Amino acid sequence: MKPGPDRRRSREAWVVAGLLALLGLGLVAPAVLAPGRVIVGDPQTDAIRGMWGFDHVRRSLLPPDWVLWSHEVHFPRGVLAVVLPQVSAVLAAPLGLPFGPAQGWNLAVGALLAGAAVGTAWLARRASGSWGFGLVAGAALATQPMLLHAVADGTAEHVAFWGVPVLLALLHRALAEGSPRRGLAAGLFAGAVALDSPYHAVFAVIPGLVLILTGMPARHSAGGRRDQLRTLAAAAAGLAVAAAVLALLFRNFPDLADPTGGDPSVYARNATDLRVWWRVDWNARGPREAGLAPTNIPAPVLVAALALALAGGWRGLAWAAAGACMVALSMGENQRVASELRSWLGEPGRRLGAAILQLNRALDRHPPLSAIRFPQRWLVPAALAWLVGAAHGHRRLAALLARLFPDALRPPRPARMAAAAVIAAAAAAAGLRAARWDLDYPRQELPDAAFAAWIRDQPGGGAVLL
């Protein structure tokens, strides 16, 4: 007897989650399996800070401390501390207990990448109706060059992107079911995304608006529309509660008021560079430059996603437009945008670049976009938007093929999943190649500090002033 549709879909979901978990583990395997105390991340970056932060959160979970209060800093009074990504660090805390800070950090980074992949797969599956396409989308997102750059840079708050696709999937499900309870849960979860990374809370705004726009017309009856409006109201209520809690928490950190540190030129220095984009895709292969952000979405992923999005009807086009908008935001205040687009597109490109620069100058000075002092990181949610647009195109094409060919002429589901796994591997390889991880893996051996070894070897405990 064949398994029913629900059981089959559940089995496919577990297969996809398992494959993407293996991908996440594989991305950190060179550091995990290396001899000595090796962690993932380039030397002279924030990787050691990230490792310390995750271990600090793990220790803060033990009495007499609690998740936001620790006596290990500012002894003996203790201190209120939010270590970004706070929620991800709490979830990854069990990894540090058996494996220690170094391997705990490596495994936590792998888990974050796997989480981003699985969350994207879930969102893409809801848009496409296919776990096979979800597998491809998850692998493509987890290996985006700018996400891998965050790993190399040791900035865990940018690696912890998993909350954005999960939030969108929760909201999509709530709207599809017309469930205010699920809408409330999505609104509250948005607070967890913001606590993990304020960047990601901002990144979720544009895709969230597009999701509401493309999800609302799904129900045509008056009752269905009322259910969806109640769901949105519940989501807004949950978001308001989460925002109030976060406002009370972050009022204790006045330094966050000016994310630029008084230097607005960061919006230009940390913007997408189209010359780098071109070099990553088309120029001769060279070693990875640790200090150079690979501001790029790999050409194979970009072309395939846009082609499918264009076939996805107005929903696919809406997501494609959202991705293009976020790519424009990623250009920040880069003064070369107009000239670079002119070299590609002629005079219309120059005018487009000038308009992008003028718009970003206006937006970057005001919340919430003023919080994004690395505009180039908009490329990751842009890739997510294009992958969701592609999912809508996949759904339409799959429906067309189903009408043209009977079931007997279509490959069996295991064969289709195997083909999806091959395509997912190709998408992941494209991302790794663009990030140059195949040539130069980002890792470092932890240094030995003589004073730390001396303190460790002392028989008693006590506080240390640094």
Describe the protein:
67% of the residues lie in helices and 2% in strands. The protein is built from 20 helices and 4 strands. The protein has a two-stranded antiparallel sheet. Strands 2-3 form a two-stranded antiparallel sheet. Helix 7 (163-177) runs parallel beside helix 10. The longest helix has 43 residues, at 86-128. It is globular. The mean pLDDT is 90.
- Apparent shape: globular
* Percent in helix: 55-70%
Count of discrete alpha- or pi-helical segments spanning 4 or more residues: 20
Beta percentage is: under 5%
Strand order, largest beta sheet: 1-4
Instruction: Spell out the helices and strands N to C.
Output: HEHEEHHHHHHHHHHHHHHHHHEH
- Structural class call reads mainly alpha
- Cα-atom radius of gyration: 23 Å
Give the uncertain stretches in residue-range form: none
Largest sheet entry = 2 strands, antiparallel
